[in-house]
Write a structure and sequence with these properties.
This protein is of the alpha+beta class. It has helices spanning about 40-65, 145-155, and strands at about 15, 20-25, 75, 80, 85-95, 100, 105, 110-120, 125-130, 135-140, 140-145, 160, 165-175, 180-185, 195-200.
Length: about 200
């Protein structure tokens, strides 16, 4: 006797050829690795570079601010530096009874002390020289510069802006009663006592 004959199941309802155990549906293909975006790594690299730049700038500022001569004492003819500007008091003339030049004849109330200062900007940004930033101490009294006479000698302003690399020679005039009691000059760049430097006479 032959076994009973059964008709084949409709298409799609029997076991799929080649995929046993999953009637009618082939298995999903294995998931591939998801491609990661490079932007997080680029952002992290930029942030790291910015941190390094900031650290370098802080180091430069610290070196500049800690490597100058603020608070020091120097002699006439010695060069010193404050905030990337170099100064040298090159000459001191005392007991001058008058000053005469093309602009006129100037007589002091007492006696003139005339100093010459070389100023050089060695930094990367403009610097300003102001004659009133330097004072002469005589008999324990601070004497300010005579700007009017100094301007007539220099035929220009006692306030000058120096671009990076500029070097000038400026004249500062004081009218003091007794130059024999003059002891020192104090230069305070930017008018700041924190940056003051003493020049012994």
């Amino acid at each position: 006797m032959q076994p009973p004959h059964h008709p084949p199941p409709p298409y799609g309802h029997g076991p799929h050829p080649g995929y046993p155990g999953r009637p009618g549906h082939p298995p999903a293909p294995p998931a591939g690795r998801k491609k990661s975006s490079p932007w997080p790594w680029i952002g992290a690299g930029c942030a790291g570079l910015a941190v390094l730049v900031i650290i370098a700038l802080v180091a430069v500022v610290f070196f500049v601010s800690s490597n100058d001569d603020r608070g020091g004492t120097f002699a006439v003819g010695e060069r010193f530096e404050v905030k990337n500007v170099q100064y040298t008091v090159t000459s001191v003339q005392t007991d001058k009874g008058s000053i005469a030049n093309a602009s006129g004849h100037h007589k002091p109330q007492h006696a003139y002390t005339v100093i010459t200062v070389t100023v050089e900007n060695t930094g990367f940004r403009p610097a300003v020289w102001v004659s009133n930033d330097i004072g002469l101490y005589s008999g324990g009294i601070r004497y300010a510069s005579n700007s009017q006479v100094a301007e007539s000698i220099q035929l220009g302003s006692t306030r000058q802006t120096l671009d990076p690399g500029d070097r000038v020679s400026v004249t500062v005039v004081f009218d003091v009663p007794d130059s024999s009691q003059s002891t020192h000059l104090i230069l305070s760049p930017e008018g700041s006592a924190r940056l003051a430097v003493t020049i012994d006479l």
